[in-house]
Design goal:
Order of helices and strands: EEHEHEEEEEHEHEHEEEE
CATH superfamily: Endonuclease/exonuclease/phosphatase
Number of strands: 14
Oligomer: single chain
Distance between the termini: 19 Å
Largest sheet: 8 strands, mixed
Number of helices: 5
Shape: globular
CATH architecture: 4-Layer Sandwich
Length: 331
Amino acid sequence: MKKNILSTFLAMTAAVTMLACEEIPGTDISSGEGGEQEQPEDPDTGQEPEPGHETDALLVGTFNIRYYNTGDGAYSWENREKAVMNFINTCGADILVMQEVCRKPAEYITASLDDKYDWIEVDRNTGKSILESESSEGVFLMWNQERLTVKDKGWFWLADPDAGEPQWNSDGSWSTWNSALPRTALWIEAEDKANPGHTVYFIGTHYDHFSSKAKSGSSNLMIRKLREMTGQTNLKNADVAVFVAGDLNTEYDAAELAPLRVALNDARTASPKTNATQVTFNNFGNSGQSIIDHIFYGGNLEAEQYEVITDTPGIRYISDHYPVLFRCSYK
């Protein structure tokens, strides 16, 4: 029987200090460093392989780490950083997208990340590097390069691609979708080394929190981009693996996510093993909790397990969002 996704999750401890973050522009996509390939456990030895490193299974995830805010008290970044990093390095994800990553957390993460992981990241205000930003935030996408060979990668604005370069509007909104803030998505095209011949397309993103038009437009844009990348119209039955994951700032049954629900499968409801009713936005235990972090998938994949990770030893909340992990295998 397969292990629970976090059966090898290590005990965590958290430091107790405080840091600060503001929300203004930041600045070309940067990439992490490589590591040597490590083979998965032989299944005939009687030992189960680590999560995400089974011969067939893929483990992908999304995790909003909470922007760098001095007002978070006991849950400020310095109180959470070790627990966050322990989760990142031990959860076993083959691909993990993170949101609200500010410069100082990005510096800590990139300095502490296991050598097997590579990454790209982008500041939401400038489309350049979070690591060059003084006080903005962005999306950070990492992958296990022992498992995946990335053939191509990049990013795009969450804005109408036919309307030209998005701009601020006179009413203070952004782009023709009237977003409250600029938003971006990161993507990779990768070959699965453990399963030669299998290609994986993954988009990780963070939707606008205010504009319904932007949320609906972003969902349609995800499908458009995947069809362009893969050259396939029927994404549910594509001969490649496709994913859209992130903090979509939208409840699972909202109309804004309808394009994703129609064109792809929802990992939360499709998995035979799932904690489907568990909230993903915990708001540090306060009111307003909801399911707004999502993983959608399609192509030649079979869902196995969806899990919202609420058990994080060492600290009650490692963020105001719980990490979400999805294990699947090829058909």
